[in-house]
Every structure is written in C-alpha cells, then in structure tokens.
Amino acid sequence: MNIFFVFQTKIAGVGFVKIHAPWNILCREAELMKLKMPTKKVYEVKQLSGVVEKICSLACKLVEPLHPHVEEHQPQNIKHLSHTFSREKQHLFDLSDKDNFFDSKTRSSIVFEILKRTKCKAKYSMGITSLLGSGIYTAAYPLHDGDINEESAVHNDRRLLYEEWANYSVFFKYQPIGLVR
C-alpha cells in the first residue's frame, strides 16, 4: 500500500494521511475476503407477458414517483453472474477497465480491512481501531467522491445522493441503497 502524508490544513497540528491500494493488493485482499464480483457472463431476465405484465406495469407507474431518479449502469433485463474473486480465475472477470473494476465502496472496505489487521507497536495492539482508541488518530474515514457544489459535467455519486435523496423536498422517496453504500 502507498501512504501519502498530506499536511495542507489551516489548523496547526492537524494533518491527513491518504492511503492508496494498488491493483495487486486489491486483488489479493478481494481473494482473501472472498468478495463476489461480476463476471463476463450475463443473462437476460424474462419479461412478463399477458395480464401479469399489465398489473406489474400499473404497479410500477403508481410507485414511480417514490423512486429516486438514479441512472442504472446496466439495463434492467440484463444481469451479471457473480463469482468469488480469484487471481487464478481472472479470465472469468471483465478486467478491460481495471480502474473501475473495484468500485469506491469495495476499495474502501478492502483498505479498511487491511487497516484493521495491521499490527501496531504495542504487544497486543492491532489495527486502526486501537490507534483511534489510544488517540494517535482522531478519525478514519474514506475519501468522498467530490464536492456537491461544483458545477462539473460529471455527476459524482455524492452529488447525485444530495440531489435525489438528501433534501427535505424528497424525503418520501426510497433510499438508493446502491449509492449510499
């Protein structure tokens, strides 16, 4: 893992540590954690027909205002098969875009798992939780995807959550759990 010390704060004595996990570390830890990742294999979900389809479409129209307007990355009728990640079976997974194969949630959980297992100098002290408990660090959290106020062409997940779910005007909508995680 790569550790970067960033001390660019206006408050004296406060600094930040940025931790980056390269591809080989992410693969090794995903294998140890037995993470299920989407494979190249896809299948199509059958569409309903007849009266059942009409009832389902009517129900969908009734609850549609309750759903947040979050774009899906893939069509509803196409699903990926998932398999436990293995470095020996990388040919099963779509690794054409290695930068986006592990999403930000998965990367954060992998790095946090590494930090939990890392031994400290004390005899029985282990992990980031003991460092937080002893006051060496005051907080440990993953980086956010970006600012919610900047007007950029690319909408990040944080801004999308703010616009579609975290306002009082949309309190009645369902929680987009995929973005919250």
Automatic annotation (TrEMBL):
<dbReference type="InterPro" id="IPR007632">
    <property type="entry name" value="Anoctamin"/>
</dbReference>
<feature type="domain" description="Anoctamin dimerisation">
    <location>
        <begin position="13"/>
        <end position="177"/>
    </location>
</feature>
<protein>
    <submittedName>
        <fullName>Anoctamin-1-like</fullName>
    </submittedName>
</protein>
<dbReference type="GO" id="GO:0005886">
    <property type="term" value="C:plasma membrane"/>
</dbReference>
<dbReference type="GO" id="GO:0005229">
    <property type="term" value="F:intracellularly calcium-gated chloride channel activity"/>
</dbReference>
<dbReference type="InterPro" id="IPR032394">
    <property type="entry name" value="Anoct_dimer"/>
</dbReference>
<dbReference type="GO" id="GO:0046983">
    <property type="term" value="F:protein dimerization activity"/>
</dbReference>
<dbReference type="Pfam" id="PF16178">
    <property type="entry name" value="Anoct_dimer"/>
</dbReference>
